[in-house]
Specification:
CATH superfamily of chain A: P-loop containing nucleotide triphosphate hydrolases
Shape of chain A: globular
Structural class of chain A: alpha/beta
Number of domains of chain B: 1
Oligomer: heterodimer
Largest sheet of chain B: none
CATH topology of chain A: Rossmann fold
Number of helices of chain A: 10
Shape of chain B: elongated
Number of strands of chain B: 0
Helix content of chain A: 25-40%
Radius of gyration of chain A: 19 Å
Order of helices and strands of chain B: HHHHHHHHH
Largest sheet of chain A: 6 strands, mixed
Number of strands of chain A: 9
Structural class of chain B: mainly alpha
Number of helices of chain B: 9
CATH architecture of chain A: 3-Layer(aba) Sandwich
Chain lengths: 275, 223
């Protein structure tokens, strides 16, 4: 099976801090791959390197056959991404956001309206297409971003914590869309999450990253089986969550509030009062 | 838009009618005539820097991230954003100009197109500056510092509110806004301390330079 994403000896340091430490993994084309890890483990940094937002310190990356550091634009055309925080223009309608995306990705003008309709219908937002995005709920925004991320029919879809803060119905909907796309179109999916139940239900393979290093890379059933076998805690390890905690320890990972956290706090305070 | 008009209007009315008699008594002539171009420039300055700074927010939560990951050159994103911000700032300036007409400003209408060019120049300079600075900052906290240590001195040492001479005048010669405002005065009321040709040259050169520097800084953004 061809490889959609290949990472070899990838490292990223910020001054003295090593965020990602010599990791290697492959993602098969057409598979759903989950990337798990505690806070500050290096998940988001890794995704940023795969998606051309951050340059690696060393190591090599291949996404859909291209190197993000050398062929950034070719890589960008080949993936779609749904960020952890919304990146829509609130002052535009859903349709306009999609239209702008089509322009950014050089989708031929003639095809654009049909494609927008197809994607919006897929995420069941077509009848709200002319509403301003600022009137959308969090779940609707997430669905819109999925529709937008796939507008240019990429081979890979990246999702950074896609269901955080969403109600169970919306979470279920989103994973249903994604499984359908994976099955019908062979879409490769790479996602990070804290929700282990999603990983167990959805992912073909899982990699666990902790403190910048990959500590597991297998199917979730195998990871659970392995964790159950290794010595240590009494009482069986039956779920991925238990295996994860066993492998990464019980301590809460304290990380310092960074600039992003400050902005998120401000956003919470100013919700609805922007401009 | 309406909210941000409050400041220029306040300045026009309070300072214009407040200092008017003092200025006239000191032999300066009609203060409103002198002040209005300065206040127009103020409206443009603040709106322009503000729109550049919005990038800090947009980088995490907004549309900017979407554009950074798209197959589009960073330079064209930066130029697009700068022109967009400059357009908003320019419209702000025009609105302040219209309002100032009701307060007693009598500009030379024939020269308004030329004045608009100066307004555009000021808008581009400071939107590019705001964008460049914002490319370096990751947190909105730096924004307060910028307002106090960059924008305010730029405004007060530009000849917007009072004619500059002596030490302040020398310092102001290094301030591009000073040339922009002088150019506005030259076109709108025919009075100029520096000369409209020099003004136009300085504004154009600085605008192009700052767009270039801003684009370079923008290209180096890592989200």
């Amino acid at each position: 099976m061809p490889t959609a994403i290949s990472v070899k000896n990838l490292t990223k340091t910020f001054g003295k801090l090593t965020a990602v430490d010599n990791i290697s993994f492959d993602v098969e084309a057409g598979s759903i791959f989950a990337f798990l890890g505690p806070n500050g483990a290096g998940k988001t940094t890794t995704i940023k390197m795969l998606t051309t937002l951050v340059a690696p310190t060393s190591g090599s990356i291949t996404v859909n056959g291209f190197d993000p550091t050398k062929n950034a634009n070719k890589v960008r055309k080949s993936f779609g991404i749904v960020f952890q925080d919304p990146s829509l223009d609130d002052e535009l309608t859903a349709y306009e956001n999609m239209f702008f995306h089509a322009g950014l990705y050089h989708i031929p003008r003639k095809e654009t309206p049909a494609r927008i309709k197809e994607m919006l219908e897929f995420v069941e937002l077509w009848d709200r297409k002319d509403d301003l995005v600022k009137r959308y709920s969090g779940g609707m925004k997430r669905r819109l971003e999925i529709a937008r991320g796939l507008l240019h029919t990429p081979a890979v879809l990246f999702l950074d914590e896609p269901t955080v803060g969403l109600d169970p119905q919306t979470r279920n909907h989103i994973w249903t869309y994604i499984k359908k796309l994976n099955k019908d179109r062979g879409l490769t999916v790479f996602f990070t999450t804290h929700y282990m139940d999603e990983v167990e239900r959805i992912a073909d393979k899982v990699a666990i990253i902790d403190q910048g290093k990959i500590i597991a890379n297998d199917t979730s059933a195998n990871i659970v089986a392995q964790a159950a076998q290794t010595g240590g805690e009494a009482g069986g390890v039956k779920t991925l969550e238990e295996a994860f905690i066993k492998m990464t320890g019980h301590n809460i990972r304290e990380t310092e509030a960074g600039a992003t956290d400050h902005l998120r706090q401000m956003r919470g305070a100013w919700r609805g009062a922007r401009r | 838009m309406v909210g941000s008009l409050g400041q220029p209007i306040l300045f026009l009315v309070a300072l214009g009618f407040g200092f008017g008699p003092v200025y006239a008594a000191a032999g300066g002539g009609n203060y409103i005539q002198f002040l209005a171009p300065g206040v127009i420039a103020m409206g443009i300055l603040f709106t322009a820097v503000f729109s550049g700074i919005e990038i800090i927010w947009d980088r995490q939560f907004g549309f900017l991230k979407e554009t950074l990951v798209a197959p589009v050159s960073r330079t064209s994103i930066m130029i697009g954003r700068t022109l967009g911000g400059a357009t908003v700032a320019l419209i702000q300036g025009v609105v302040v100009l219209i309002i100032s007409l009701f307060i007693g400003f009598h500009p030379s209408f024939v020269h308004i197109p030329a004045a608009i060019l100066f307004m555009l120049g000021i808008a581009v300079i400071f939107t590019a500056l705001g964008t460049g600075i914002a490319s370096l900052l990751e947190d909105m906290q730096g924004f307060q510092l910028i307002m106090n240590f960059v924008v305010m001195p730029t405004f007060f040492l530009s000849g917007a509110l009072f004619p500059l001479s002596g030490v302040l005048g020398t310092i102001a010669r290094f301030n591009p806004l000073c040339y922009g405002i002088d150019g506005l005065r030259a076109t709108l009321i025919g009075v100029s301390q520096i000369g409209v040709g020099t003004d136009a040259l300085v504004v154009t050169v600085v605008a192009l330079a700052l767009v270039g520097i801003g684009a370079w800084l923008f290209r180096r953004i890592q989200v």
